[in-house]
Amino acid sequence: MEKLYGKDLTVLAYKARLLAVEAVHRASSGHPGGSLSCADALTALYFNEMNIDPANPQWSDRDRFVLSKGHCAPALYAVLALRGFFPVEDLQQLRSIKSHLSGHPDMRFVPGVDMSTGSLGQGLSTAVGMALSAKIEGKAYRTYAICGDGEVAEGQIWEAMMSAAKWELDNLCAFIDVNGLQIDGATKDVMPTEPLDQKLAAFNWHVIKIDGHDMEQILAALAEARTIKGKPTAILMHTVKGKGVSFMENQAGWHGKAPNAEEFAVAKQELEARIHELEEN
Amino acid sequence: MAGKIATRAAYGKAIVDLADKYPELMVLDADLAQATQTKMFAAARPERFFDCGIAENNMVGIAAGMATCGLKPFANTFAMFAAGRSYEQIRNSVAYPHLNVKIVGSHGGVSVGEDGATHQCTEDFALMRQIPGMLVVCPCDGFEMTQAVEALLQYEGPAYLRLARSATDIFTDEIPGYRFELGKGVTLAEGTDVTIIAVGIMVGMALKAREILAAEGISARVINMHTIKPLDEELVLKAARETGAIVTSEEASVLGGLGGAVAELLAENCPVPVVRHGVNDTFGRSGTAAAVLEHYGLTPEVLAEKARKAIAMK
């Protein structure tokens, strides 16, 4: 597949958002807020940055991805489906007993999922293990991860940060989705994690700060990460939780709540309007 | 007897000896390479040794990531900090995706000795046994450990291997054709009145208890149940049917480990008296290994008494 850029990626990100919100609505449970905030980064990874083959999801030289904030599975599933790892129709069975699409990603059953996640704080360590494996075996593949800004309150995240710097894992690139909200409220109130840029720099990571909804900035940050030698890169992406659905934006209450039929109708209308607007211009 | 060695020392030597044959073997430690005996591997294969510092949870995650890439990681620390501290990482990052990671818990049980309760893990068998798909293995001596390490290298999937700190007699090397096979208990001595099913360092003590009982005219069978999970159910049921009384013996809590596994099986399939010998739902304490084992009744004499009790309940 040809790499996609700019507006094409943004349109796909909004399509992924619509699929994710629809899946959560049908399941009557799931996590729309964070799925909407990281949809742009996921789309950039799977349609531009990563060296992958949907026809061969276990290809040993593929780039790896770990969704450390595993509850944002609806967005990951939507992007994987759009990319061709499995049929888009499967999303309608999200969280169903009949489906391979569990509430949190299960690598045993979902083509394209490189690591089972869901228990916060653990995914980044596994990404470190993958990046270290590439170094051990002299392979060129890169490893990517997305962590939440609430998730970084977990001590294991900082253990992983230290170890990635120790082994100079310049083949590792971790996004932190800084949407500023978590279940119990604002991250600054629940457990302040800022200043993340200074903390990560002090942990000897290369730090890039971007607007996580600006596709050009996302691609530029990923390109910059590939040029950094001797240390891992953290992309602090400032995002809006619930991005693209007006009543979900910046509302902690939409972290793990499914829209009802009326709410979904509004969300669908807004997201479709945005897609239409982008495609027209 | 062919001398004494701690199973941790035998393990440390085995991973070095097997390094060439298994190039995917990677060894991780959490700042305990001296104690866990991975220091020999670190010296011999520095490019395949990864010291993760005092951060066990991250070590387990790194091992999981390595396993997804086809490597065979062995993650080492004390049993307490592996099965205890990192229980949830082992459950969710290793066992749930059924990854080929070996968790190696050294210094299991109370024979850790002087360091005391914070370092004496008696819950590891029960904790690890709870996890679906997890193998739980604890060899009885240094010779068996060497075979167990290779068997685990050949097994694709998550496993927990417990090592002991203190040197104990090597005896399985004197048994002609002795072969360790995952999930297959070994009948070390025949008997008709009672069966002692033991694991780890309690296996040697079970053989001594058998001699005490023999002097009283009691015939005790001794089984080395080196694999607690999956339990060799066939062998346990056969022993229950043929001897009519069972004693389990482990240097671990009587709750949920080998004793729990055997009692659960027999209660549902062949109810005979089962007496569990182990640490009785209490924390450890400091002392020399011998003094601590004595304090908790982990001796051939107390084990023999448990056997008499089981027989009396027939």
Descriptive terms for the model:
heterodimer, A: 281 residues, alpha/beta, Rossmann fold, five-stranded parallel beta sheet, two-stranded antiparallel sheet, 43% helix, globular, B: 314 residues, 2 domains, seven-stranded mixed beta sheet, five-stranded mixed beta sheet, 14 strands, 20% strand
Write a concise synopsis of the structure shown.
The complex is a heterodimer of chains A (281) and B (314). Chain A is α/β, with parallel strands linked by helices. In chain A, 43% of the residues lie in helices and 12% in strands.
What does this protein structure show overall?
The complex is a heterodimer of chains A (281) and B (314). Chain A has a single domain (6-280), classed as Thiamin diphosphate (ThDP)-binding fold, Pyr/PP domains (Rossmann fold, 3-Layer(aba) Sandwich), CATH 3.40.50. Chain A is α/β, with parallel strands linked by helices and 281 residues long. Chain A contains ten helices and seven strands. Chain A has helices at residues 6-27, 32-37, 39-49, 73-83, 123-137, 155-166, 187-190, 196-202, 215-227, 261-280, and strands at 64-67, 143-148, 172-178, 181-182, 185-186, 206-211, 233-238. Chain B has 314 residues and is an alpha/beta fold. Chain B is globular and about 55 Å long. Chain B has two domains: 4-169, Thiamin diphosphate (ThDP)-binding fold, Pyr/PP domains (Rossmann fold), CATH 3.40.50.970; 183-312, Rossmann fold. Classes of the chains: A alpha/beta (281), B alpha/beta (314). Chain A binds chain B through residues 60, 64, 66, 106-108, 114-116, 118-119, 121-134, 136-137, 155-156, 159-160, 162-163, 166-167, and chain B through 26, 47-48, 50, 52-53, 55, 57-58, 60-71, 73, 88-89, 92-93, 96-98.
Number of helices of chain B: 13
The CATH architecture of the largest domain in chain B can be given as 3-Layer(aba) Sandwich
Tell me the structural class of chain B: alpha/beta
N- and C-termini, Cα separation of chain A: 24 Å
**Average residue pLDDT of chain B:** 97
Percent in helix of chain B: 40-55%
Overall geometry of chain A comes to: globular
* Structural class assignment of chain A: alpha/beta
CATH domain fold name of the largest domain in chain B:
Rossmann fold
User: What does the radius of gyration of chain A come to?
Assistant: 17 Å
Q: Give the mean pLDDT of chain A.
A: 97
CATH superfamily of the largest domain in chain B: Thiamin diphosphate (ThDP)-binding fold, Pyr/PP domains
Low-confidence stretches of chain B: none
